[in-house]
Cytochrome P450 (Musca domestica), 456 residues
Amino acid sequence: MNFWMIIIWTLLSSLLSYLRVKYNYWDLQGVKQLKPHFLLGHLGKLKSVNHRQVLKEVYDNFKSTTKLAGFYIYTKPVAVILNLDLVKAVLIKDFSFFASRMVYKNEKDILSQHLFNLGAPQWRPLRNKLSPAFTSGKMQFMFPCIQRVADNYVKAFERGLEESESLDVYDLNGRFTVDVISNCLFGFESNCLENPDEEFRQISKKILGRTDFGIKSYLFKTTYVDLMKYFGAKRFPQFIENFFGRVVSEGFVEREKTNVVRNDFVDVLKEFRKSGELNLSNEQISAQFFVFFLAGFETSSTAMSNLLFELARHEDIQTKLRQHIKEVLKRHDNTLSYESLVDMKYLDQVITETLRLYPALAFLQRVALEDYKIPNSDITIEKNTEIFIPVQAIHHDPEIYENPKEFQPDRFTPSEETKRHSQAFLGFGDGPRNCIGLRFGRMQMKIGLITLLMKF
């Protein structure tokens, strides 16, 4: 009995000593931190609040006194950037020090090999090759396709209101964005707006419905990558991997057979493979399809739902927006075109304010590739330290945005924007690793919203 008590006592003492050393990391660096929880670090707070609130607490406690605060994911130290000049250094000015993200990727997990996850050496050439798929020229080619889907979106809206007094707008927006992505980016004739049980929509639900999509599981995998690789952990089950593999193979085979040119994502990849400029396997391409599908339908459908919610709450803004759309269309021969879309500045303000109030990501992630000494400071961010930029906390800072919880699109008039720091809005990230599909995401939202507001 005494022997086992000694063993247990020794193990507990060793564990406590280990945790004491780990949780003193930031103190020894001279960096302020909130008291971490046993074993979980600052994730222990997730029992009572969500991760957005945890980061906001760190931001609110320390932003007035320091550029950087300490944070712990389990036992791993993370640097939380609190100063907008330092945010700009990380994302833009000194980007070469922070060109990668600390994310879970596994060579055996095909769907983890996408652009968002890739480290700097692999990311840069792929980003450069994929960017032509999202130029303004390509957006103009895709415009008619998105407009057709938007017309179906309004019809589905009408059917829903005929069948019931209430309507699940989030589900409808999800079906709209899935149809846009599958039809206009991938060239597949899905019709989720007509058939909610269509395969693309069911896959989208299963992706978001995964229990391991939660923040704790995600951060555990990014923290203990080697352990997860040892056990062969995958983020998503095999049937989702198989689905995107089939989408890629069928998509390329169909294009080869028909010689149809749609100027979409598939055509861009097909041309690169044909010319030898981009040597990607079908598995690697399926990973790119996966991430553009996930990012394209989820972020846009959520943003559209939040925007419609705010318009319902603020009838004055809704009226102003509808009138603005009518005035712009009148200047363009009452035709919704790519040119008229670009001219709708107030709609841009409404979308941007929605993304400020409800950012898709609570934080941006980077990792230090080398030791980085913070300018005008004695603090050094050591190599391999993970970086968090607390987007939602910045967006809700009353010193940056007066009455930050209020929905006020006029915050984003050109004159108002010039008054703020360039990093005060990070709805699409910033710098070389900003959102590659920014133009596409905004365009599908704008077309869907315009078509809806002109009908109702």
